[in-house]
Structures are given as C-alpha cells and as structure tokens.
Specification:
Elements (H helix, E strand, L loop, with lengths): L3 H7 L5 E4 L2 E2 L10 H15 L6 E3 L5 E3 L8 H18 L7 H13 L9 H17 L3 E4 L22 E5 L3 E8 L10 E4 L14 E6 L5 E5 L16 H4 L4 E11 L3 E4 L2 H9 L3 H30 L6 H26 L2 E2 L5 E2 L2 H26 L10 H5 L4 H7 L7 H15 L2 H11 L5 H11 L2 H13 L13
Parallel strand pairs: 1-10, 5-8
Antiparallel strand pairs: 1-2, 3-4, 6-7, 7-11, 8-9, 9-12, 10-11, 13-14
Helix pairs in contact: 1-2, 3-8, 4-5, 4-8, 8-9, 8-10, 8-13, 9-10, 10-13, 10-15, 13-14
C-alpha cells in the first residue's frame, strides 16, 4: 500500500505539463496543482491507515486497496462500495477522476481478460498483468477516451488531418508508435498512468484509431495541455474552499510520435473490440458504479449546505423553503437509492464475477444531466443575495480598519461572522465560481451528451419484461364482434 508521500514522490518525474505556454516545473508544489496533489495524497494516507479498513488480500498474497477489488460475491460489492464512499467523503465528491474511477474500468477488463485474446493472445496477458501492477503498486490511472472536437460529422479517417485523433503510425517487434491528440484527460497531470482508447463508436476505416493502451505520464513525446487552473491566485482556503483543494485539472493530450511497448497494449486496430472492452466486460458498469457513489456523496454535501444556509437565514420553517429542501432531499435520494438498488440486484458475469445491475445504474446516470443543474438551481435560490454580500477576502476580516464592521454586520443569530462568511463562501464556490461552472458542465456531460446516457438506460432496462406484461394484459380480453353495444 502506498502513502501520500509515496504518491507525491512518484509524480516527481519528467512529465511535460504545460500552462500558459510554459512547461510546469516542480509540479507537486506548483500553485495550480499543489492543492489537488495534497488531496490525492490524503486519500492514499487514509487507505494506508489500518484503522480505516481499506485493504483486501489479493490473489497474489499482497495487500490491495478495496477500491480496485474485482467483486466476486455480494459482500465484495458492499466492501468496494464502502471503500469508494469513504474516499468520496474525503473529497465530498468533487474529485471525479480519483484513482478508484479508472481503477473500476481496469478491474472490469481484468475480470474477463480472455475477451482481449480474440485477436492476439498476449493482449489478455497484458490486461491481467497491468491490473496486477495497479493493485500491487497502488497506482493512480486516469483516462483519455474521447476524440478531439474537430468535426463530429466525420469519422476519424475522413478528417483532413489524418491524425487529429490519436492513431498508430507504425509497429515493430517492440511495440507501436502513435500520433495525434485525445481528450479529456481529467487528472492526467497528477496521475501515474493514462489509459488511452475511444469510447464513441468507430466505423470501418477507423482501424488505425481502434486502439487501447496505457502508458506512464512521463513517456517521451506525450504532452499535456491543461485548461485554466482554478486554484491559482486564490487568497485562501477559507475564501475558495473547493477551488483550492479539489481542482483536479483537465488536459488535452498530444502524442508526438509516442512509443508504446506491446506490454501496455490491450487492443490493436480492432474497431469492434474497442467497444467490446467496455460493454462485454463489467468495466463500464464498475467504473460508473464508482461515479454514482461519488455523485451521491456530492449531492449529500450540497443539500447539507442548502439546509445549513436556510437555518442560518432563519427561513427553514417557511413552507416554500421546506418544499425546496424536500425536493433537494428527493433528488439526492434518487441517486443514493439507485446505487443501492443496482448493487442489491447485482447480476453474475464471466469467471465468477458479480456486478451492479445496469438497469438501475444507468437509470441514475440518465438523470444526471438534469438532476445536478436542478440541485444547484435550488441551492442558488435558497442563498439569494447572501453569496454576494461577502467581504472580498479573509483580509477584510482580519484588518483592524475593516474587521469591526465585518464582525458587526455580517452575521446571523446564533452564528458568528466567521461562521456565516465561511458557509456562504463555500456556497459561492458551489454555484458561482469558475470551479462551480466547471462542475456544472462536468456533471451534465459526465457520460457524454445527455442522449448518450439515456441510450445506456434504454439498452439496459430490459424492455422485454415490460412489453411482455402489456402483451399478457392484452391477451386477457378481446373484442366481441357480435355485440351491438360495443361491449368487450
């Protein structure tokens, strides 16, 4: 098991991460990353502590983090759920690509490695070996599985720039060389490895892009271009409690003739297999089970803020406010309940594995793009102008010239000035900052465009049962053609 110190030491390498046209140096201590690095280190320290019961005994007789567990019985699902929820509790669900997310995908791949041997036998071995490496070394893997937004009306091989999307340009006995770009690698700048593939369906002719591989973040030729960081130039954690600690960063990846050894290749030039790896194994289900557990923790945190705001403002007994709080409770309970339902109705899979029931899992995902904006809208409504009536920073609070006014006029009955300012600064970081806007967009498009998430639900609901119920009902009566009064 890894400590936080081990994790930080592991990312002190030659990775090429760029901000404002410059290579980031000393990444763990850079203002854009030091907050999230400290947060991830905290996750590892939490898991390392025996008292938190985050470990399981692997088949290789070593200790592994329960978040990477391949469930083989219902008790495994419960243990895995509890471990993921403990981590989500430390980040309050605001780190979407923590190590347990892609760890779930890799566990899904490794639970059915034979699927990867259809074209090349050693690919199955590659999958199993890398999963073992992740578990035994407690690695942080994130992914880039979406092509760049260039022209979505065309397939990859039809674009003017043949390598807009990452694709293979050559191979030899040692491995493959890839070129192009891929998105959206959330957390890539602070992870150990990146899993690269393509989850949107590819078409015949796209074989050069039909790849699945992993590689260390510091691989020569790999460049990470990060979006504008939200933690930089913030005056304090008290002013921006979420932005300063949980900005996991999103990166656009460029592969400049990057060499990938065969041992890190899972799929090679196989259009069908690129899709099968996600949906013919429990990978997509396990990865998104983690995501919904995380989302349930996040919503619980947000509605806690909403309730506390209404209490502090003395409006929590007003019927219209109670209605809004009740709606928030309903929305939060939907996600939490659907996660529990998916696990309690778990289904058996290949090689003695068990996975959450996709009917209920994708039911929650199908609502995510509507549910999260509604939660934020209700919180915003309850906060009113309170999130605007705040001092510019903690300096106004501690300055002899301004501190007296702040303490006198910005407070609530039973709550000190500091209590009120901290709560409403937190609320603003949920609804009004760049960090808040990014999370709004992130949750809306977490599973791709909203119609994609609803298609998952459509394909996995099991309409045969519903239609058969209707057919049975219709078969129980008929039209009496001899009736003169239209009776049946």
């Amino acid at each position: 098991m890894r400590t936080g110190k081990d994790y930080i030491s592991g990312i002190e390498d030659e990775r090429r991460v760029y901000l404002d046209g410059k290579l980031v140096e000393n990444l763990p201590n850079h203002p854009a990353f030091k907050g999230i690095v400290k947060t991830i280190a905290r996750l590892y320290d939490f898991s390392f502590s025996k008292e938190n019961k985050m470990t399981f005994k692997t088949e290789w007789e070593t200790e592994g983090n329960k978040v990477f567990l391949i469930p083989r019985k219902r008790e495994d699902l419960v243990e895995r759920h509890d471990a993921i929820y403990k981590w989500a509790g430390l980040t309050h669900g605001f780190v979407g690509r923590s190590p347990d997310h892609v760890g779930g995908f890799l566990a899904g791949f490794a639970s059915n490695p034979n699927l990867f041997s259809k074209r090349e036998a050693n690919f199955a071995e590659n999958v199993s070996n890398f999963y073992r490496k992740v578990v035994t070394e407690d690695l942080y893997v994130t992914y880039a599985i979406i092509p760049p937004q260039v022209d979505r009306s065309k397939s990859a091989h039809e674009l003017e720039n043949r390598f807009s999307q990452v694709g293979v340009i050559s191979k030899d006995d040692r491995g493959i060389v890839v070129r192009g770009a891929q998105m959206l690698a959330t957390g890539a700048a602070i992870s150990d490895f990146i899993f690269v593939s393509c989850i949107p369906p590819l078409r015949p002719g796209d074989e050069d892009y039909a790849l699945s591989f992993v590689l260390p973040v510091d691989t020569p030729g790999l460049k990470l271009y990060c979006r504008r960081p939200f933690a930089v130039d913030k005056p304090s954690i008290a002013d921006y409690p979420l932005s300063t600690q949980f900005d996991e960063s999103d990166a656009f990846l460029v592969f400049d003739n990057v060499f990938v050894p065969w041992k890190y290749v899972f799929v090679f030039r196989d259009v069908q297999m690129v899709q099968s790896q996600f949906f013919m194994t429990p990978a997509h289900v396990l990865g998104n089970n983690q995501a919904q557990i995380r989302l349930s923790a996040k919503l619980k945190f947000i509605i806690g803020v909403a309730r506390k705001v209404s209490m502090m403002n003395g409006i929590d007994k007003i019927p219209s406010v109670v209605e809004k709080l009740g709606e928030l409770a309903t929305l939060s309970s939907i996600v939490e309940g659907m996660v529990v339902a998916s696990e309690s109705k778990a289904i058996s899979g290949e090689n003695g594995t068990i996975a959450p029931n996709p009917r209920f899992l994708y039911g929650a995902m199908g609502l995510q793009s509507e549910l999260y904006p509604r939660v934020l809208h209700l919180l915003r409504d309850l906060c009113g102008a309170g999130v605007l009536q705040l001092p510019s920073s903690y300096m106004d609070f501690i300055s002899p010239e301004t501190g007296t006014d702040i303490e006198t006029y910005i407070k609530s009955p039973g709550y000190s000035s500091e209590d009120r300012i901290k709560l409403f600064k937190l609320a603003w970081d949920l609804v009004g900052t760049e960090f808040a806007g990014r999370h709004y967009q992130y949750e809306m498009f977490y599973a791709g465009a909203p119609f994609v998430a609803k298609n998952y639900s459509f394909r996995n609901y099991g309409y045969e049962e519903a239609v058969s119920i209707v057919d049975k009902f219709l078969s129980e009566y008929s039209i009496d053609r001899n009736s003169q009064e239209g009776e049946y």
